[in-house]
Amino acid sequence: MDDLHIRRTGRTGRITLTRPQALNALTYQMCHDIEAALDGWRHDDAVSLIILDAEGEKAFCAGGDIAEMYRTGTSGNYDYGRRFWRDEYRLNAKLAEYPKPVVAFLNGFTMGGGVGLGGHVSHRIVGQSSKISMPECAIGFVPDVGGTHLLAQAPGRLGEYLGLTAYRMNAADALYAGFADHFIPEDTWSALKERLAESGNVEALQGAGAGPAPLAALRPEIDALFAGERLQDIVNALRSAATEFAQRTLATMERHAPLAMATTVEMLHRLRGPSLSIRKALELEYRVSHRIMEHGDFLEGIRAAIIDKDRQPHWRHALDRMPQVDVSKLLRPLGPDTLDFKERAMHIAFIGLGNMGAPMAANLAAAGHQVTGFDVAGTTTEGVTKAPTAPEAVRGADLVITMLPNGDILRAVAAEVVPHMKPGAVLLDCSTVDVAAARAVAMMAEEAGLKALDAPVSGGIGGASAGTLTFMVGGSDEAFEIAKPLFEIMGQKAVHCGASGNGQAAKICNNMILGVTMIATCEAFALADKLGLSREAMFDVVSTSSGYSWSMNAYCPAPGVGPTSPADNGYNPGFAAELMLKDLRLSQKAAEAADADTPMGHAACELYRSFVEEEDGKGRDFSAMLPRFETRRRGN
User: Fold this and answer.
1) What is the pTM of this model?
2) How confident is the model at residue 424 (pLDDT cuts 50, 70, 90)?
3) To which pathway does this protein belong (predicted)?
4) What share of the chain is helix, strand, coil (3-state, %, to 5)?
5) How many domains does the chain have?
6) What domain range is 618 assigned to?
7) Active-site residue among 94, 193, 451, 507?
8) pLDDT at 514
9) Would residue 186 be called left, alpha or beta, if left means φ above 0 and alpha means ψ between -120 and 50 degrees?
10) CB of 565 closer than 8 Å to CB of 462
11) Per-residue pLDDT tens for 187-209?
12) What H or E segment, with its residue span, contains residue 110?
């Protein structure tokens, strides 16, 4: 262990990185040795806390030692890198979740792998020399080692800025952005470590003022420029801004790998929210790590920066021609190769293997869970064991998932399967149904000694396949915690909305907004056409102005404008108009029951009713309202 000095001093376990000539970059063996030390001290009563530090003045840890990854990767052997990342990420999670205080002294450069080592622990100390950054996009990679966990929690849009530009934070910046906890002058560190070793008590940590954070002054401009849904939105905003900061930032980003930057933006948007956890971030990062050498720019980035040092990387994509589908490919679930935190696989029953249910069940099976499925049409999907009946499917299951067309069918299926479920199991309904049906089924389950959740989804068939759904969940805290690992496989976000039925309430309110905004977006495009305004100009203005909405920016109803959407495929449904009508009817039924005034929701419901039942909307995407408005005149 020449690269590490591991020992016990007083009441502390001490781990010191001893590669100052290599800026204390982490090797594979160092990761294993650090993990072994942590495991040994976990239950050692003589060790009250852990100290992480490093020799030399230049760096705590400037990243991972990637030379061997390059050598093996360029020979076509991707397994070495994958093993390194799997084991390193397990260490990162262990540090974040360690049951005893861990104090890291982050002097000098703390970059990449150094952030994974010292950035998630309970007490992160910075000083005058601290320079912290996530520089991965510069070498064709994405922020990893749990870096996305920190970036997604940074104030405003600092996460996108820090991840895309590799900006080096000083001590004040690191405190402001959430990468550090205490500023302590470095000339006191030696004495402080002695006090910690003697007392074994973190009360000895007394932070001082680090001064103003440059990032705090820049944040209003960063928040405005980096608020886009995708990388192209951010690039467009930077190009449109006349400030020196915007142009300097754009020049930096133009040197970085477009695929890496676009993937970073998508990762942060998926992770940001109340369901964020270190394990969720690491699992998403590992999807990229597992594929990056074969399908990304990582090897080329290392060549240009580290091996040949010509600083002339040949990236796969140009900045303005970055297909989002390549981002999706990097972020798809890995199936049997999913990052393993040694959690027990669950026995899951899945009832309803239609367009949504089948890919959701397949993703669960691909993640290593035992999935038994049943559908009245006799369909099945990859990795799922087919059961002859619904009661047969649910016998012995830890958790039963239903994805069904309406509340009446949900009630009937629940009445059929609940008597056959094992005590304590969870009934998780992902259908979109009326609130009353959701609450009735939850009561039925609870009376039978089961736990129940209603968790309707947003994201459509594409989100079900890609594992990027959003779940709006109603039910008990206990049931939510049991199902949370499954939400993280099937989706990008799960929001616990409260008691049973609240998930359905959130879904119908969300989709009422979606229906109304899509109609407004289509009306505006049709008006722009008749006023002689080009659709491209319309999109460029609205997508970066106060008219910004998901309907415009992510699901634009005008073909050939904005990111690819069903409009570019003849309005073949991603989310069918009749499904939007169903959700709007549910919202109006709920509004009537709650005595709520929803005039816009009512108007949207009536428009979609006419579109589906009297016109040509059935079987088309809900954004096909645009060609409808194109042919209509005022008053007809």
Assistant:
1) 0.60
2) confident
3) Amino-acid degradation; L-valine degradation
4) 50, 15, 35
5) 3
6) 508-630
7) 507
8) 95
9) alpha
10) no
11) 999 999 999 999 999 988 888 88
12) strand 109-111
Pair type for strands 12-17 and 4-9: antiparallel
Provide the token pair at 447. Answer: 């009376």
SS (H, E, C) 265-331: HHHHHHHCCCCCCHHHHHHHHHHHHHHHHHHCCHHHHHHHHHHCCCCCCCCCCCCCCCCHHHHHHHH
Q: Do residues 322 and 398 share a domain?
A: no
Can you read off the two tokens belonging to residue 71? 């050598």
Instruction: Return the H-helix or E-strand segment holding 105.
Output: strand 102-106
CA distance 108 to 347: 48
Tokens of 599: 């005039």
Both 263 and 163 in a single domain?
Answer: yes
* pLDDT at residue 588 is higher than 50: yes
> Are 360 and 384 spatial neighbours (Cβ–Cβ below 8 Å)?
no
pLDDT tens profile 375-423: 999 999 988 999 999 999 999 899 999 999 999 999 999 999 999 998 8
Does a structural domain hold residue 338?
no
Would you place residue 633 in the very low, low, confident or very high pLDDT band (cuts 50, 70, 90)? Answer: confident
Tokens of 433: 């149904």
**Same domain assignment for residues 44 and 183:** yes
114 and 29 within one domain: yes
Are 354 and 239 in a shared domain?
no
The verdict on residue 336 lying in a domain is no
Whether residue 507 lies in the annotated active site:
yes
Which helix (H) or strand (E) element contains residue 582? helix 577-594
Question: In 343-388, at which residue ranges do the beta strands (DSSP E only) sit?
Answer: 347-351, 370-374, 385-386
